[in-house]
Amino acid sequence: MSHRQHPSSFNPGTLLFLTVLSIFGAVIGIQLLTTLGVTPNTSIIGALVAMIIARVPLQLFKRFRSIHIQNLAQSAISSATFGAANSLLLPIGIPYIFGRPDLVLPMFIGVSLAMLLDGYLLYRMFNTTVFPAAGAWPPGVAAAESIKAGDQGGQQAGILGAGLLIGAVGSWFKFPMAALGTAFIGNIWALSMFGVGLLIRGYSLPLTGFDINKNYIPHGMMIGAGLVALCQVIAMIRGKKLDRATATADALSAADADRRHILGSLGLGAAGYILIATLIALGGGLYTAMPMGMLLAFIVYAAFAAFIHELIVGLAAMHSGWFPAFAVALITLIIGIMIGFPPVALVMLCGFSVATGPAFADMGYDLKAGFILRGNNADIAFELEGRRQQLFAALIAFVIAMPVVYLSYQGYFAKGLVPPVAKVYAATIQAGVSTDIAKSLLIWAVPGALIQWIGGSSRQLGVLLATGLLIANPLAGWAVLIGIAIRLVVLRLGGEQRRHQLEVFAAGLIAGDALFSFFNSVFAGKSGK
Fold first, then answer.
1. Angstrom distance (rounded) from CA 194 to CA 213
2. pLDDT tens for residues 37-50?
């Protein structure tokens, strides 16, 4: 029986600290998304702030030495950053750019609810067959190892420090050190396809003169891979059977409980997204722009799009640490255009879709960090309570992000500071989709589906290949493949100790890259570059 008590997110001192971090994270997320078009991972910042405060020689700050409070800190600040920027500000920027500021309020209400549901669903599904705690979740590993090294010191701190330094220096020279570090941690099969996709996207145009992005090849492959991934998740839930003649009663009971829990979570998510889609449709007055049949079709498709967007983003994030949230939302928008929804419905659809996914993935990173810091489920009661407190920390951050965004967005938008990708979505809605684009999507969905099916649910080859194809960063492709080669050599020559040291070093690389990118982005944002 456990006698350990996890720190509470609602302890007055901790709550005040999380509130301040959440406000800071939300402001940083808004500032950088509007000025640079990116949202940095601020989880390491939150942990470092807690570590620094813990060194203040006052009794009041002594409690912040707890690695579990530091875990709550990194959970809160990263949730606030991604929530404010990706889940709230970006969606409301779409109707504003489209010339319908009257739709901002119903969009804001809808995506706020979607953000809360997004985070809660990952909390429920974490450490299940679909999203296991044993999954890579590379940024979560980086946060956990950074916190552990700061707490324990010694050799591990030295390895982490070396990784931090090399990661920051490499980032200074524009080399994607986070991609290199991720290759030391993530799923090798998935990352290999991710790296190949990055290289194909990066070199297809200069080497062959053929632009795969303008021909919507990555988008078509993601459609096929995403649909197969959804089928694989369903098959995983329904078809994972143990040999009842040899399996223990506990194993059978655990498998059945896992299946029921996943089905319950998926059912809750489906009902929640249908309800939110209905609220968005009614709030946006879509019933005046569409007949009843099309309105019902919109609600069903919007909920399905949000659901599959969340699934694809979560799987990509778990295996590679990267998630193509913007691109997948564009895919759901293109399909919506092909269905024939009117422009105002497409605006609401796109905002709703893009709001789901980032909070889901970020929650996975944070829970992975907590899982490691709490001893990898060594004390189940302590793990479950810690996970619950992390959910509370994230919800606190989400709730704080809402007024920060709502009270500040008009000032940013009035100055022309609208998330750049919102302009892409609005332009796509206005331009429409040609027959050639539709044909390309259908054709390339076939190889995407086949690759995903051949790789199986454990490798996610199709989803990760499509993810790489959607991202224009060939240098990251080289970093991933070089990192995989180094990892295979180290694992072959060393044992378990070398593997763990490599993970700590990788955490340093990712943290160093994140810290450099964060401060570089802040200074660039302030200078208006």
1. 16
2. 767 777 777 777 87
Alpha carbon of residue 441 to chain centroid = 25
3-state secondary structure 277-290: HHHHHHHCCHHHCC
Amino acid sitting at position 258? D
Q: Where are the beta strands (DSSP E) in 323-469?
A: none
CB 336 within 8 A of CB 354: no
Beta carbons of 191 and 319 less than 8 angstroms apart: yes
Which of 112-116, 462-466, 515-519 is least confident? 515-519
Distance CA(93)–CA(26), nearest Å, equals 16
Give SS3 for 342: coil
Q: What is the DSSP letter of 63?
A: G
Taking CA atoms, 174 is separated from 43, 177, 370, 506, in Å, by 21, 9, 30, 17
For 528, the enclosing helix (H) or strand (E) is none
Is-contact 408 90, C-beta < 8 A? no
Q: Using CA atoms, how far apart are residues 274 and 295, in angstroms rounded to an integer? A: 12
Confirm if 131 and 314 have CB atoms less than 8 A apart: yes
State the residue for tokens 């470092």. Answer: 48
Joined together, the tokens standing for residue 228 give: 């197969």
* 362, 156, 8, 60: CA torsion to nearest 10: -120
The whole-model pTM stands at 0.86
Helix axes 249-283, 217-239, angle to 10 degrees: 140
Task: State whether the Cα torsion 220-89-19-147 is positive or negative.
Answer: positive
| Angstrom distance (rounded) from CA 358 to CA 119 | 9
- Number of residues assigned to the chain: 529
Burial class (CB in 10 A: 0-12, 13-18, 19+), 435: exposed
Please tell me the distance from the alpha carbon of residue 334 to that of residue 337, in angstroms, as a whole number: 5
Q: How far apart are CA 336 and CA 479, in angstroms?
A: 36
Cβ-contact 93, 173 below 8 angstroms: no
Q: Identify whether the C-beta of residue 8 lies closer than 8 Å to the C-beta of residue 393.
A: no
**Is the pLDDT assigned to residue 528 strictly greater than 60?**
no
